[in-house]
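An example makes the point: we let one protein speak, the chain in one-letter code, the fold tokenised, and here it is:
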Amino acid sequence: MRKRLFVFAVTLSLLLSGVMVGRGMEKEGIERKNLNNFDIGDHVTISAFTVHPTEIEVGETVTISATIINHELFVDLVLSIYDNDGNFLHTIRRYELDPYEQRSIEENHTFQDIGSFIITIGGEEKTVSVEEDIDEDGSFLSRYCCIPLLLVTSITLIILVIVILKKKKEPQDDHHHPVQQHIRSRQRAEKPPPPFKNIKNCPDCGQRIRFIDEYDSWYCDTCQEYK
């Protein structure tokens, strides 16, 4: 009787050990697949994957966000950056997800090189274009120092307009204007003095006489002769 109980206990121990070893090997196999670039395309869903902005200058930062929905596996996801030729550059962050875990991620990354770069996670890709910082090529002055110059120019133009409008509104004294004085002097010089200084009527018939510029003489219409 004791011998049978001993055999039963040994058999049960071996069965339990086999089950535990099998489970350990199964778990080890899942983790090994995840670590060896296991194809997770059918096991993980990436949604709302955005990169903003996608056009920046050197030294600026982009914001990367996404929602990861994991299914039945233990998964390692890597947020990575590649160049435009597909060469790996570096890893931004690695994420370890448990089965059926859903996680929202948001990362910031600053680019220090010029070019076109690919940000990828779980098979999803976004392209970022990085241009030269215009402040580094000496055009800083053209960007910022032109603002005071524009302000000074605008203020000067406004003052000139105000002065011109004020000049137009001021009444001008034509009597003392040099041009007007010259015209009046010329008119006085060209106007012939009347031969009869204090007489406006004909000395013969007493009727009014008129001055004829063409003949430079006074003419009486009644007498029909020059005086």
